[in-house]
Amino acid sequence: MKHRFRILALLALGVLALGALVVAAACGGGDGDGDGNGAGGDLDAIAKARGLTPEDMKHALQQFVPPGKYDDYVMISSGGHSGQVFVIGMPSMRILKVIAAFTPEPWQGFGYGADWGDTVLEQGNPTTPAGTDLTWGDTHHPAISETGGEYDGRYIYINDRANGRVAMIDMRDFRVKQVLAVPNIQTSHGGMFVTPNSEYVHVSSKFPMPWPAGSYADVNEYKEKYRGASAWLKIDQETGRINLDESFEIEIPPYTQDLADAGKLASEGWGFIGSFNTEMATGGDAEGGEPLEAGASKNNFDFLHAINWKKAEGVIAAGKFEEMNGVKVIRLQTAIDEGLLYLIPEPKSPHGADVDPSGKYIVVGGKLDPNVTIYSFDKMQAAIEAKDFEGTDPFGVPILKFDSVMAGQVEVGAGPLHTQFDSKGHGYTSMFLASAIAKFTLGEDVVTTDEEPFKLIETIPVHYNIGHLATAEGDTVSPDDNYMVALNKWSIDRYAPIGPLHPQNFQLIDLKGGEGPLELIADMPIGIGEPHYTQIMKADKLKALEVYPPGTDALTMTTDPQAIEAGGERVERNGNTVEVWMSAQRSHFTPDILRVKEGNTVKLHITNVEQTRDATHGFAIADYNIQASLEPGETSDFEFVADKPGAYNFYCTEFCSALHLEMAGWFLVEPAAAAALR
Amino acid sequence: MKHRFRILALLALGVLALGALVVAAACGGGDGDGDGNGAGGDLDAIAKARGLTPEDMKHALQQFVPPGKYDDYVMISSGGHSGQVFVIGMPSMRILKVIAAFTPEPWQGFGYGADWGDTVLEQGNPTTPAGTDLTWGDTHHPAISETGGEYDGRYIYINDRANGRVAMIDMRDFRVKQVLAVPNIQTSHGGMFVTPNSEYVHVSSKFPMPWPAGSYADVNEYKEKYRGASAWLKIDQETGRINLDESFEIEIPPYTQDLADAGKLASEGWGFIGSFNTEMATGGDAEGGEPLEAGASKNNFDFLHAINWKKAEGVIAAGKFEEMNGVKVIRLQTAIDEGLLYLIPEPKSPHGADVDPSGKYIVVGGKLDPNVTIYSFDKMQAAIEAKDFEGTDPFGVPILKFDSVMAGQVEVGAGPLHTQFDSKGHGYTSMFLASAIAKFTLGEDVVTTDEEPFKLIETIPVHYNIGHLATAEGDTVSPDDNYMVALNKWSIDRYAPIGPLHPQNFQLIDLKGGEGPLELIADMPIGIGEPHYTQIMKADKLKALEVYPPGTDALTMTTDPQAIEAGGERVERNGNTVEVWMSAQRSHFTPDILRVKEGNTVKLHITNVEQTRDATHGFAIADYNIQASLEPGETSDFEFVADKPGAYNFYCTEFCSALHLEMAGWFLVEPAAAAALR
Fold it and tell me: Considering CB atoms only, which of B18, B521, B544 is closest to A497?
């Protein structure tokens, strides 16, 4: 194909240079009103006109990030049943990206014909049960990879609570690279957490299932045949992918395992999982049984599960496992025999289980108990060492004595759920029923202020019905003490009315170095999905690519074998197959006419040959349900059958240049028979 | 089924009352630091700590909406190739809702088994070509319904640029109720606009296609066999739905018709569509032809199309149409003969065509011309009356003389695209190449200041590469003069690095009553989709439902025949079909065990029997790809085959109560043969 000099393309490419000049000019100027210094009078006038109180004015200044300046933090938030993950700047609370994880998303070209997304989604379909094609997920708990107990900005893991899956997002390009259906888990919850050096990412089952996956049992055989699993999924350090061959599971009793957290520092090598429904209720209200939520709320204590994953590695190495549905499984009896699993009573219908930055304390909120309960890891170890058990559960798992391992309780209020921490020895617990956050002290060995241990310091109302909360760098060994975000489930009357489906409500709270009273800064509606949890990472840890190296396959992050440079465009026809190597460059696809016959298999390889930051091109074909996003340097591959005769416009879907609208072409599918068309 | 008193459900319902008490307490207090008045010193300290300039401080106060307070405006923005529509509060620039329009979205339960979304998506599939299942769209230009030329807050229309479709969103619940594949249009662009009293919503084709739809022709027969269409889609005033029977199309030449706008006041009864590629270039660079963008950019003038839709109604009434693919079509020759269509030269490769609030002026930006061109509607009418034509185009359409109808030109800068207006007689034009907005005056009969007509007043830089822009109430007959939003296509270096795919960048600009210099207030990243256009409506025009009346079918907005009240739950089995009437109420589904046999057809009717604002329940079944959002009062219907044996957890996906996690149940699919499972 001849290579041409295109004056129009150059004109379009000139956009950036011009843009840069304009910026320079703008940065030199003031605000245009000529005052040049001190805005006090202006501020009061604006506040008066807009009805802002002195407190509002302070909060405005605390939240505002001026145009062109960067946020200090990024929040990595789940999107709930949207199946996505959100990247949000903090303190501005602006959404930087909605990352498609389990749900097809056409802007990013995820699941609309390009091989990257189609491959990820296809690989994420469970093999048990057979024939399951999933096009959504319920993302709950993001976990940023860690090095030395600190977020390291490399990978994000996120679970699909609905379908027992895990996705991995590469923070080089903030795209999902793997969806894994975790064997023997139908619904997932516990975690996600990574171990402090990202050896494993953990997820455990929510509701148990007939076990192992692929078997069937009615719920009247719940205790006998249903089981849960604690999955320790091995992370490949180079790619971030989960390597199932080096992963393992531990069979656990058919309770409803809930939130989980990794041990760290003092408790490194252990993991902790809360649970409820140790009653093993299964509902059946229409069959004369009790409603599930009533049957599941009878016991005064459920069980915190303490798991020794370091020791479990040795058990696997010793071959004491069974292979089940492609993963090594340590059976429950083996886990008991080898001292991998212990149960600890936790009041009542607990939800959160959170490890403090020192790793010395595990905090549990019992949603039907007004206290948070704080356990001592040292006491747990001593009790295990001394075999100081109060007996076993119905499956033979040893139960530690509550009084032996409990370090303290703090009465915080109604419906405590999750706890986050600062570096001063404080815990912050969300309370769903009270619509508030409680601040309290942990044990004296970690409290750095002169406050008494295990005391309630204060509560702050939130609006409304908070689920999780998160402090900056909150799951690391060194939390920052400046910001906290409340993830409120209900917003009710907080926003202008836009129908019966309300947004969720994030609230930004000033932590004041862990020392002053908590103060609400701002509300942020989440009008997409229902975030469950977020981690907040310093923005200076971001190390994302600005463009891809030329010809990159976004799935493998290596050079795509079908990548071309400008000038390398061509079409090859072999029998029923038409193969096309196409380039995209402002403002042109080459070739811009594709002629095929009805029924041809089309193999299309498109390379965005640009290396200019933000010079993304989209590629869509009308009526063919094909839509890709081609970032600078990316090569994308498509294969489909030209099963619809007709003349179809294809075009660049991402506004790229002054002649973007002219960046189009024709996909001509000649009818197999003239009679097929009128 | 017996009706029980459930203490736990009551406990959960108590959440709201408690929440309300907490709010009341919070509202009485200050910010907790005891200063109580005047925040001047605090403000300076915060600004210093955060590096805010005096201008930044002003802008922070201009943008900030305090927690719990409402925004003054809502922006209704397209989402580009995400296929969605965004509702954004202004000035805070917070996203209140991402509305699923053309793309399945599980949070809203759109396209995941519930009848509302599945019906809308299915009905939106084109019949030509046959076998087209579309699961995305490229939303471009939202149009809020109008009464008397003012946004009336009833309905939103949005086009799918990729696949020639239109969606209707009901502003009572901000849900999409109709997706219509517009006959004889493959790719759509022109508009959307509504006529000033919402008689019609208009969309026209982007690229022409072999015409009518369903025929085939190679692009070498482009001039002879390809045609575009201007579609006038009749709006049912009660439901907002498009009634195709009362709609009509006008055949137009095979140019690339572009943005369009409705006449209003002086020009009511007319519509205007810009165009480019009057060269009728088709590309073919790999076949020895010219690149499409070069071939399409040769002419110094393209054609603004002026269409008399009021007169066209009479032509339809007189029976002068042909029925084509289910819609009445006025053929091109008829349109010429009846005086419905006129062409007006517009320089060069134009994009925007915008009617000013008085309806007297139509402003066109030629993206390869440094001027905006302002046409006078009165002059057009005079020229038409006098038959003052410079001839016809190749299809016989009369062309008005440029000099006869042009009222003025203003040299604004490189790459002018779209124009919005204030009430003082100013136009504001976006310039893609210059990355700036130009402010200029229109004709002296609409300028209310002492500025000269048709003069450039100022330009303001934007960051970067702006497409559309919008002023508050900007498409109405009475724009507000306070805010303008720039919809920038590139963000490049404006945000912390999150990979090669950059967010778009909205910028909020202070219009200062149309009198002062323009001033940038804030940046807002759009990290989902690529908004093309937005309309900005006063928030006090919102009249959305808080909850649905009991048993509402969200598709029809009438009572669902399958709705039940609490206590009306039941299961009926008929042959191979199991039909279930289920209720959802904090914290329970009744029944909570569903027993079926593999292969059964399951008909499920779920009613959220609550009437509490924000008491939404989700409903998902693991591994069955089913996910619905049930707003308070809503009934949703599902029909599917239990084709996978197993015990599947179903659960409430929307956090609803303290015992939300217990709001679950079991879908037991007994295997057809024991041998089918191990």
Answer: B544
